[in-house]
Structures are given as C-alpha cells and as structure tokens.
Amino acid sequence: MSGNLLAPEWLRVPEDANALAAGVWSRNAIRSADGVIEIAGVAASELAERFGTPLYVVDEDDVRARAAGAKAAFDAAMGAVGTTAKVYYAGKAFLSTAVVRWVAEAGLGVDVASEGELAVALAGGVDPARIGVHGNNKSERQIARAVAAGVGAIVIDSAIEVERVAAAAARAGRVQRVRLRINAGVHASTHEYLATAHEDQKFGVSTADAPGIVAAIRGLPGLEFIGLHSHIGSQIFESGGFAEAARRLLGLHAGLLAGGPVPELNLGGGFGIAYTSADGPKPIAELAEGIAAALAAAASELGVPLPVIAVEPGRSIVGPGGTTLYRVGTVKAVSVSVPDSSAGEPATAVRKYVSVDGGMSDNVRPALYRADYSARIASRVSADHPALVRVVGMHCESGDVVVRDEYLPMDVGPGDLLAVPATGAYGWAMASNYNWVPRPPVVAVRGGEARLIVTGETIDDLLARDPGAPAPGP
Fold first, then answer.
1. Residue 396 catalytic?
2. First-to-last CA distance in the chain?
3. Where does the chain hold its CATH 2.40.37.10 domain(s)?
4. Sign for the pseudo-dihedral over CA of 403, 404, 409, 414
5. Considering Cα of 55, then 280, then 30, then 319, what sign does the dihedral take?
6. N or C: which end of the chain has fewer CB within 10 A?
C-alpha cells in the first residue's frame, strides 16, 4: 500500500496497524488474545476503567531492569579499562519516591536539579551520599539544604557558586564535595534546545576559566574538589559525542592533577531511546564500551590514570517503560492540497485528526521540540486498512499535538482507547495545568497488579490554590 502524501519520509505504512513495534514499547507490553494491549499483565481497558484517562502507566520491571542494566554495562566497560563507574539516575526525567527506591535498589545514585527533587530523593530513602545536585542558579536555601542533608556532590555551575557552597558548608560544619561543570563545546546531534554543551548557553564554565575556579575551590577549607562534569545533550544515539567530550575533559583533568587529586570525571547522560520504529539507539552496553575505549586511549596518550567515571542516565532508564492512555473524543478528516511530483500538479491528501482527552498539559514535548511518538488503539484490534492520523489534544492551541504522524486503522473513532508508548520520561515531569486541566495520576504495573505511585489532581485541587474560590461543599 502506498503511503499518504502528507506522511514524513521516515514513516512507513505498517503491514499491521495493530502491531506493537519492538524496541518502542515497554518490555512487558503485549497485545492479548482478546485484542487489548496489556502492560505487565494488566489490560489497558482495566487501567482506564479503574483510574480514568489520561493515565500514565509505568512498567515497573522494565524500569528496574534498565536501571540494573545501565549499572552492569558501565561497571563492565570501565572495569575492562582499569577503573570503576558510578551511575546516577537523572531524576529530572521522572521522579517519585517509588522510582527512587527502584533505582536505589539497582545500585544507582540519584541526580537532582531542584530543591523539590532533592526532597523527593530524600523521602524515597536513598543514601544522601549517593545524591548529586545540579542547577545553574541554585538558591542559597537549596544549597544549604543539600549541604545539611549530606549530599555526595554539588555541581558548581559558575564561579559565584564557589563562595555560596563554601559558606553553606562552613555554617553546617561540613566539608562539601563538589564537581565543576565544564562547557566542553561538543555539539550533540540532537534538537537545538536539548544540546547543552554549545559555547553560547547557560550551563557550565569554559575550559579556559576552569583552572582558576578549581584553584579557588581548593583554596577553601569547606570544599573538596572531586572532579569535572560535562553534559552534551539529550536523546543521543551514538557514542561519538560522548567520546569527544571525554577526550576534552580528560585533557583538562590531566592538567588539574598538578594542583591536587582529581578522583572522578562525570560525563553526564543523554542516552537516547526509540520513540518510533524509525529510531535506532545503540544498546547501553555498546555506548558504555565506546566511551570506555575513548577514555582509555586518551588516558594512555596523556600518561594519566583513569579516574572513577560517573554517568547520569535518566530517559534511557524510565522512558521506554512508560505508556500514556487516552480516550478518543472526536475524529475528523481534513483534506489538504499537497505537491505531487508524479502528477505534476497539486494533489489532495486526507489526514484524520484524532482528538483525545489529554494533550500538551501531560506531554509538552511534541509542541516544544516537535518530538515524534507512536500510537496504537489499545482497547481492540481492527482489520481496517491503515490511515494517516494526527493525534491531537483538547487544549486551546493549534500546536497541541500528541502524535504528529502515525498510521492507525481507518475506523479509529470516539470511545477508542489509545496508547502512546515511550512516555515515561519528561511526560509527567513537564506536565502543567494549562487550561486548568488537572495533571493525571501515575500508576505502576507489575505482575498483573497496578498501584498508584502519584495521585492525580482534581479540579477541586486546583481551585484550592485560589484564595478567591469558595471552599468546596460537603
């Protein structure tokens, strides 16, 4: 079957518009014999009936396995080149006390980027010594709370933070371990807003400024310098960018050894996942091996021993295990005039707009980054032929897109339950109350059981924040 003229080149017409693409869906997602999508033994229809829609669903065993897999991959890769690894879960992807417990039990630390994330990590019971604190504008209160909690490392993002962290450490009577974030200048092959090592941006300090800042850190009795930090971007499929950043950082690291020990080097995270069948991220073990090989070669050339290597995966651990469920409300066919080189004149193509009961308030990435996702009807199978659809939200914005381009059965219609995979990262974490829409709940599924791990909001919850609103009735 030929494709729709409106479809992007990467999107192929599926042989079966009911099939779940391998590598895109969570490991325990299947289409059951009765045609309903099940995740970890729980039917999507049962989840929607019990918890409502929109609904974030997290495959607990998938997340646990990916956390353990990341730890094993970096332990093995760094062990093979004569050093050790520390793996932190980047909490900004999605953080709840349940997730903190899952990753901590897999041997990971937790990386936090705000006072709230620090509070969740501590409430989840992770050892504070396994917490890393990020942020380009950390408040004095946030720094004080992190120091008082005994976090394992605070990442210094600018020269002005050196004195702030030192002052907090002095007040607490502690010696605080710190890293210095470096803008390595490596441009990751990712969306412009996701690349975080361009020279002209808000994170980190230049390699030229680093020696002076490190000297200032070393000159203060309340601080212990443990190494450099870098983060080149997000949703990266290859190890080349990480390898180049590692080489640059290790060169700076080697120069700093003359002034004292530099026991660690943190290369950040950003490992990508598959959102569609066209995506092909490398397995985490392959990425770890590529980074380790580059580090070993650079260390040999510089004549320095390899430090402990730290990494901070987030999306690659929690992203694939997440699925969002929606209910279809309306469907409309829109005819669009498009150039057709084969016909020599404009042709008309039809795109079906499938509107669901969520949207940019529960997943802003398509609107913010033009991120692509996949979708399937979750409540049934269909023998109808595939039709090009755009799944859109219910918000008052033309850019409120959930899945920009997908093929679903032609008979997709009101009442159908839709499942969008790979939403475990940056869905709930970036959710909002735009149009006064309550944020959905999050449920974890495991072994045929489902349980709430984040309670959803109600309109009464939102009104309770407005001092001018009357109190809800009994």
1. yes
2. 58
3. 29-60+321-463
4. positive
5. negative
6. C
Contact 364, 430 (CB under 8 A): yes
Which amino acid type is present at position 462?
Answer: L
Residue 390 forms beta bridges with which residues? 353
Residue with tokens 């979708």: 375
Question: pLDDT by residue for the chain (474 residues), tens digit each?
Answer: 568 889 999 999 999 999 999 999 999 999 999 999 999 999 999 999 999 999 999 999 999 999 999 999 999 999 999 999 999 999 999 999 999 999 999 999 999 999 999 999 999 999 999 999 999 999 999 999 999 999 999 999 999 999 999 999 999 999 999 999 998 777 655 444 334 445 667 888 999 999 999 999 999 999 999 999 998 877 887 877 878 888 889 999 999 999 999 999 999 988 999 999 999 999 999 999 999 999 999 999 999 999 999 999 999 999 999 999 999 999 999 999 887 666 567 788 899 999 999 999 999 999 999 999 999 999 999 999 999 999 999 999 999 999 999 999 999 999 999 999 999 999 999 999 999 999 999 999 999 999 999 999 999 999 999 999 998 766
- 461 near 435, Cβ under 8 Å? no
Decide which of 3.30.2350.10, 3.40.50.2000, 3.20.20.10, 3.40.449.10 is the CATH code for 81-317.
3.20.20.10
**CATH 3.20.20.10-classified regions of the chain:** 81-317
Of the residues 208, 258, 396, 471, only one is catalytic, namely 396
Q: Which two tokens stand for residue 69?
A: 């897999």
Q: Which class does domain 29-60+321-463 fall in?
A: mainly beta
Three-state helix/strand/coil letters over 166-207: HHHHHHHCCCEEEEEEECCCCCCCCCCCCCCCCCCCCCCECC
Q: pTM to 2 decimals? A: 0.94
Burial class for 345, CB neighbours closer than 10 Å (0-12, 13-18, 19+): exposed
